[in-house]
């Protein structure tokens, strides 16, 4: 008598025909990496072509000094299908590792100015240009103390 006999029969039998491999989703950053560095073709069928997001890929490439022109060319031609855009970018951009920082809006400063002065989004953006970093810190401190805690 073996140890497996005490466990009982298997709950279900899975045959090879029942097993379906799940296709891993390809992120826009995988496409950007393949355009920049690996040069491996990720669009092999219609399923992978539908995963290609030209806006995000062009945005990722738009932060690089040597890739911004190619990304802008594809942004100006949104009517071209995804596979053609991808192939163009893979062919035009030279191979190399690029560590471009994404520019992010100072949303916490903007939200603090909006809340403190009860301004709209556009008016708070205008006010943010006139305020110094010290003024913004004072506003954030007053908002934090008004809410009962420092965030």
Task: Please give the count of helices.
Answer: 9
The number of domains: 2
- Termini separation (Å)? 64 Å
SSE series = HHHHHHHHH
Shape: flat
Given helix and strand content, the structural type is: mainly alpha
Mean pLDDT: 85
Helix content: 55-70%
Radius of gyration: 26 Å
Most strands sheet: none
Extract low-pLDDT stretches: none
* Count of beta strands: 0
Q: β content, as a range?
A: under 5%
Task: Tell me what the structure shows.
The chain has 151 residues and is mainly α. It starts with a helix and ends with a helix. Helix 7 (107-117) crosses helix 8. It is built from nine helices and no strands. The protein has two domains: 28-92, no CATH class; 107-147.
Secondary-structure topology with pairs:
Layout lengths: L2 H5 L20 H11 L7 H6 L2 H9 L5 H8 L6 H11 L14 H11 L3 H10 L2 H15 L4
Helix pairs in contact: 2-4, 2-6, 4-5, 7-8, 7-9
């Amino acid at each position: 008598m073996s140890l497996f006999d005490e466990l009982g029969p298997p709950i279900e039998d899975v045959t090879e025909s029942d097993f379906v491999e799940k296709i891993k989703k390809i992120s826009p950053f995988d496409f950007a990496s393949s355009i920049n560095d690996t040069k491996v073709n990720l669009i092999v069928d219609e399923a992978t072509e539908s995963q290609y997001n030209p806006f995000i890929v062009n945005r990722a490439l738009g932060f690089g000094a040597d890739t911004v022109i190619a990304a802008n060319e594809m942004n100006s031609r949104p009517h071209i299908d995804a596979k053609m855009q991808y192939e163009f970018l893979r062919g035009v951009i030279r191979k190399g590792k690029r560590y471009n920082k994404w520019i992010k809006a100072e949303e916490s400063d903007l939200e603090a100015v909006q809340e403190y002065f009860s301004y709209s989004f556009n008016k708070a953006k205008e006010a943010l240009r006139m305020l110094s970093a010290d003024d913004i810190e004072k506003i954030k401190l007053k908002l934090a103390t008004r809410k009962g805690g420092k965030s």
